[in-house]
Design goal:
Layout: E1 5-6, H1 16-25, H2 44-61, E2 67-72, H3 75-87, E3 93-98, H4 101-113, E4 115-121, E5 145-148, E6 150-151, E7 156-157, E8 169-172, E9 189-193, E10 204-209, H5 210-214, H6 226-231, H7 241-258, H8 261-280, E11 286-287, E12 298-302, H9 306-318, E13 321-322, E14 333-336, H10 343-359
Helix pairs in contact: 1-7, 2-7, 3-4, 8-10
Bound molecules: pyridoxal-5'-phosphate (PLP).
The site of pyridoxal-5'-phosphate has 12 residues, from helix 3.
Length: 360
């Protein structure tokens, strides 16, 4: 098999050492004689795993006191409904940023629950940028502001944490979660599907302030209620045990091997910079996003024609590059540079791009 470079947008690449650990652990977890796949979630062994995952997240993100960490299911997509279902009162309104595909999906579900005011629409700017926090005009008295920090499909990102805006800020951070340090205290809630940067598909991480939790609407369906999950410490029903275990391993890797999120951010910026420099140095390739909004995680770019883009996608695949074809609804090319992607894969891609340009 040729060497693969995994630029998959999600589920994305995992650290090789994590895959090796899974392989080692799978038949017999920690001398229990059974696999983690066969183990009750009500055992001390599993409880230690989920507790470590939470402790690692708390350490990596310096999560302040007064915040809960929840392990949920249904993907980030279920949060699009759960957030308004819990926090948008019947007589209220919620502000939303619809900067790209995921933000727009969040808006669609919120509209099914109540009144929504879209405060930024990416369609107006060709999905080339996301707003600065300071340019937003918000609805006085809005229940919350929902933002997507990194629009995975279009490759645009808000790079800084919000200032105090006078309302709770809820952020879908699925595709840049754990890629850089962030100031949790600026948010009422952050959530992320694990399969981009934090682990395997099946678990969604949510960090919520107790202040926000106290505002949750009463009498929600149990599995759709943050209060229920918080009370039962994410063990109301069977959690996605295996996916939680992978989060434990990935956060352990981030702490012990990478050395934390500031160190991770340095590497991530270097990877993105190498790619954007290649795009900027060429008149053949064109970066999609405006410079200020360029995503560090998902680098989107175009070639001179759709036909060349097709050829690039096919030939890069044949050369061992996985996942460079842009999202089916958006087109173009996209290189996802998640935490676990080695810098050598970016170097190899840059070489492939230069060589493709010479031949085209
Ligand atoms: C991938 C992604 C989602 C959807 O995640 P699922 O776990 O598939 O529901 C939502 N938001 C963002 C920003 C994403 O990158």
């Amino acid at each position: 098999m040729t060497h693969r470079h995994n630029f998959s947008p999600g589920p994305g690449i995992l650290p090789a050492s994590v895959i090796a650990q899974i392989r080692h652990d799978l038949p017999d977890y920690a001398d229990t004689g059974i696999s983690i796949l066969e183990m009750s979630h009500r055992t001390p062994v599993f409880e230690a795993l989920i507790e470590e995952a939470e402790a690692n997240l708390r350490e990596l993100l310096a999560i302040p006191r007064g915040y809960r960490v929840l392990f949920l299911q249904g993907g980030a997509s279920l949060q699009f409904g759960m957030v308004p279902y819990n926090f948008l009162p019947a007589d209220g309104v919620a502000d939303y940023l619809a900067g790209g595909t995921w933000g727009k999906k969040a808006v669609e579900d919120a509209r099914r629950c109540g009144r929504v005011a879209v405060r930024f629409d990416g369609a107006a700017v060709g999905y080339r940028r996301l707003p600065k926090w300071s340019e937003l005009e918000l609805t006085p008295g809005a229940a919350y502001l929902h933002a997507t920090s990194n629009e995975t499909i279009e490759g645009v990102e808000i790079h800084d944490d919000p200032p105090a805006l006078g309302l709770p800020i809820i952020c879908d951070a699925s595709s840049d979660f754990l890629a850089r340090p962030l100031d949790v205290s600026r948010y009422a809630m952050l959530y992320a599907g694990a399969q981009k940067n934090a682990g395997a598909a099946g678990v969604t991480l949510a960090i919520l302030s107790e202040e926000l939790l106290a505002r949750a609407l009463p009498d929600r369906l149990a599995l759709m209620s943050y209060a229920v999950h918080a009370q039962s410490r994410s063990l109301y029903n069977t959690p996605p045990c295996f996916s939680v275990y992978v989060v434990t391993l990935v956060t352990r890797w981030l702490k012990d091997t990478v050395g934390g999120l500031a160190a991770m951010q340095v590497v991530n910026r270097r990877k993105a910079q190498a790619l954007y420099e290649t795009l900027d140095a060429s008149s053949f390739y064109r970066a999609h996003a405006d410079v200020d909004s360029r995503s560090v995680m998902n680098v989107t770019f175009r070639l001179p024609s759709a036909e060349l883009e097709q050829r690039f996608a096919a030939e890069s695949e044949a050369a061992g590059f996985i996942g460079l074809r842009g999202h089916r609804a958006f087109g173009g090319l996209r290189a996802s540079l998640y935490n676990a992607l080695p810098e050598s894969s970016v170097t190899a891609l840059v070489e492939f791009m230069r060589e493709f340009e010479r031949r085209a």
